[in-house]
Amino acid sequence: MATPGTSPADAPRNHAMFDAEFSGAALNMQLLRRLLHWLRPYRLTVGISAVLVLLASTLQVLMPVVLSLVVIDHIIRGETDPMAPDLGMIDITESIAATLSIHPLLAACLLYTALQISWAVAGHAHRVTLISSVINGLRDLRLDLFRHLETRPSSFYDRVAVGRVMTRVTNDIEALYELLRGIGTLVGEFVPFFVALTIMLAIDVQLTLILLLVLPVMGSATYYFRRATSLLFRKVRMTLSALNQSMQENLAGLQVVQLSDRQQQNLQRYTQINEENRDNELKSARVETLYGAFTDSMAHVALGVVVWYGGGAVLQEQMSLGGVILFTRFIDMLFHPIVALGEQTNILFRAMASGERIFQALDWDEKIHEPANPAALPPRLRGEVRFQHLDFGYDPGQQVLDDVSFTIEPGEKLAIVGPTGSGKSTLIRLLSRFYDFDDGHIFLDGIDLNHIHSRDLRKRIGVVLQDFHIFSGTIYDNIALGDPAVTREMAEQAARRVNAHGFIMALRDGYDTVLSERGQNLSQGQRQLLAFARVLAADPEILVLDEATASIDTETELLIQDALRKLTAGRTSIIIAHRLQTIQEADRVLVLHHGKVEELGTHEELLEQQGLYYRLHSLQFQEPEKQT
Amino acid sequence: MIRSLLRLKAFVLRYRGRLGLGILAFGLARVFEGLVPLFLATGIDRIAAGNTDLVLPICGILLAVVTRYATVTYARYAVRSVGQHVAFDLRQALFSALQQQGSRFFGRYTIGDLMTRAVADISLVQRFIAMGTILLVILIYATLVGFGFMLYLSPSLTLLLLPPLPFVFFYAQWSARQMGVASKAVQDRLSDLGGQVQENLSGIRTIQAMVQEENEIKRFSETNQAYANAFYRQAWINSLMTSWMPSLAAICSITILGYGGNLVLQGELSIGALVAFFMYVNMVVQPFRVAGFIINLFQRAAVASDRLFEVLSLDPEIEDRPSGATPETIRGEIEFRDLSFQYEASREPALADLTLKIRAGESVSIMGRVGAGKTTLLKLLLRLLDPAPGTVFVDGHDVRDYPLAQLRAQIAMVPQDPFLFGEPLGDNLTYDDPGRPLAAIWQAAASADLKDTIEEFPDRMRTLVGERGVTLSGGQKQRATLARGLIRQAPVLVLDDCFSSVDTGTEEHILSELKQLRRGQTTLLVSHRVSTARHSDRIVVLEAGRIVEVGTHDALILNGGLYAELERIQREGAEDADYTLAGAPG
């Protein structure tokens, strides 16, 4: 027999893996390829975008050509550089001048204007098409991710921090947006780079090669700078988050801080972190400023090089003056991509780590095992629940339920009591199929639970947990839960029966009151009543309730007890009870202890036995009998 | 806007020397930068004239580049470091100021709000000083220097370049505003999305139990689409800006090309100067592109500054003005004399003419409905809220005469909300005095019935609690905070409903332990449960801020008042249907 709690199909999972840090140090091609899968539906748009970027880049390169080769060389100096490819700009200028019979200079201005406008339009179209494919692709990815996470079982959510799961859907996908946008930016920089490079090589190979020598210098400077700053940035991020955490915690626990007279000490600690953060910030500012002016300085040095080399070349008639000037205009296009690449690397690496986290989540296939041929349930179950030799443990070697066997008759109300950790919650988790089990059986009207699809099962079992989750939406939405069969009248009737109608009508918009996140505008007791209304409206055959432990004021408590009575009437009910009242009203009481069924019987029977229940009971409710 | 920013004066002026030098250096750097096109023009003209002597222009360019690099690097660092120092000082000031505040303040400001001030607002001010100053200075210097050099080269061409510039400026401003709106929409949609995911995942068990997965996925898909739409709109505006901003600036380029080219043809301008003009226009227009961003940054920084000083300028809520005549150690006699208290936001008084004397060594339970004033009473005793003079006395001295730290050291309070710091459990238990021996900590844990729990943790007292560590159950947290109160062995112990999540059996056990431990010492205890209160020497029942009953358990039961009623309800539960529905809404 396999280890209790894990199905034979999969080995125990290490959930710490899910919370582990990802470095994202290297460019992960496999990851990028996987990402492409989500872009595939939009490949046509991406293709159009690629054509457009080529067009825009060419137009961008043509403008300096008009200045240098057309205006300066052709119109002003009346010479042409046989080596310099003017790409037909001279002919076009001349034909405009001839057609409109204007001065060639004016014609050049018109051409320049036309090029500028076309560039603006093509560039915009390129960016918009690219980003729209990215947005749509990532939207799909995010939805797929959410869908995947939404259907992970409790065993997953019991062991990983919700915050960690949440950041996958939010921050990590955001990082991918940055990544793909960054790649878009690089495309917009590098395509003009290569177009310009082609023309420069055509004009003068030697000068071009000399200028390209600057690139490795800039590239390595950029590389070392990025490496230094990414380290510093990480430190800054760490100290900054420590700083915020220290402040946040101090505020949250300020009453304790003041009661313990820790203000001075905590300020000292904060100062320490604050100083460390400032020093890290200053260090990274120093590195950044050193690098910041470096790239434009290199571009200026390159200008000197062009003058020095171009001077000789022009005198030896290897180059025209316009050719030299064209080189000066191309320098920015040559160097800017390197700067942009530097700017994008950090984003790139961060996105790699995010991508790994996203795919880890998508690959996390933990799930409840559903039967291959699920049993068909009758339209209405009688509601008999039978536990048979059930053993269970969350982790190997730790037994939480130990040979649990008992039967609940249809319509019976069973209270489960026992000390903390006795297995009460586990029992109802298994009954609701939140966990797989394979050692022992649970039968519902004689049907093995493992033969019922969890979805079918949960429609028949109404579960009210300790934290009554309130969905964003109106009160009505919260009762009906999207079931079209629940009309407004039915919802209201359900609310009336469980004593929720009163407080609902006291709210400003009655049943249309929009509830905020986690139902903050309702009290604990009101939320419980609302959860009851929800179950009553769904009318499941079986009720599973984990009674709230928190103390609720006596009046609301009475309303809840009354509602509970109506909710359980004629319905098989299993209640983890904390209130004596609830226990006394149950048909039978089951006492769990260390995962074993210690006692089972009516309240009176168990009291007579003078066993564990008697002890629990007398502790909880000492002496008052004597008073009356 | 200016006035809001001026509130930062005191913080910035501390670094005026460095800031001034930085701004000066920016000016110098611009001049050096402006020399580069000038030398380039000289070089081009010499080449055009067939002159082989290019030493001057080349050396000129190199020299200008080196000096510019040095000055601009210095300038940027100087200004940025001022920003960091100011942020540092603001954080210190804020932290100290917040530590002085109390319940009234935190009723008005949520922690989330204060954290936004501490994180986002300070970072905005820092960026305003560093980036904002730099950009503004660059904008001014670039315009002055750029136009200076251009005027020197050709006044008439320079004047022709002026008309398009305001358009560039206004377009920059307009599009920055558009971007602002679009970016805010993106932020809002993103926070909707985050909120929805968070809410959804924290309720995942209920969602799955209720088979609501498909509905939730559908709901998420709508939010997801709304975010994608907002994002696309922002990208669209951003891309338009990237296209049209250079196109507006191109009006200048075309003017240079046409009019300047004509000047060259007529021999009034050199080819080198024509090329230099292109570079100068770029130098002037470039900073204009970010004009909108600068204005936006200044506006946001002004708001941030107001928000910071709103909190910084508040006086401490509770004044610490010891009279010097109070005893070092108290016996534990407490007296409330005609004590009334009303919260700012409330119309009804929380406490009204409350008079009560508690003998040293007595144990007193306070009962009453939610909102009866139980916690308020305790807070006034500890001066977490400030009572009027002459209303609350400890050992015959007004609590306002005690040094705050001493008062709170002598009266150990265990608050309702079991707060633990994200530190090792042991440090949490001995929070007020980290120097206590481990044995004392274990003993306090044992008294609070927490010893067994801690021994189950592999790291025992070193176990990290909170978000990054072990999550304790509500009852465990309450017992931990109880231990934190017990460890102090203070003359007075105040427990504010701190058993609500502890199961009754454990509570019973702790209470009997307490009885032993606190023999002969004053203990005040707030509770909902009769089973808790019955052990006390006296029970005080509050109703709407007034004492309605005082006495022993037996006496109050005989009395047949509210306490007896509560006892009956809690014992019998809801059997009495008349009562159930009498006070019930609906």
Explain the overall architecture.
The complex is a heterodimer of chains A (628) and B (586). With 628 residues, chain A is of the alpha/beta class. Chain A contains 23 helices and twelve strands. In chain A, the strands form three sheets. Chain A has a six-stranded mixed β-sheet with strand order 6-9-10-3-11-12, with helices on both faces. Chain A has a four-stranded antiparallel β-sheet with strand order 2-1-4-5, covered by helices on one side. In chain B, helix 16 crosses helix 18. Chain B has three domains: 1-154 and 290-315, ABC transporter type 1, transmembrane domain (ABC transporter transmembrane region fold), CATH 1.20.1560; 157-268; 334-415 and 492-582, P-loop containing nucleotide triphosphate hydrolases (Rossmann fold), CATH 3.40.50. Chain B is α/β, with parallel strands linked by helices. In chain B, a hairpin with a 2-residue loop joins strand 9 (538-543) and strand 10. Residues 573-586 of chain B have low confidence and may be disordered. Chain B has helices at 2-6, 9-13, 16-48, 55-99, 103-108, 111-153, 155-161, 164-202, 204-209, 213-265, 271-289, 291-312, 374-382, 404-410, 425-429, 438-447, 451-456, 474-486, 504-517, 530-533, 553-559, 562-572, 577-582, and strands spanning 334-341, 351-358, 363-367, 392-394, 397-398, 411-414, 492-496, 522-526, 538-543, 546-551.
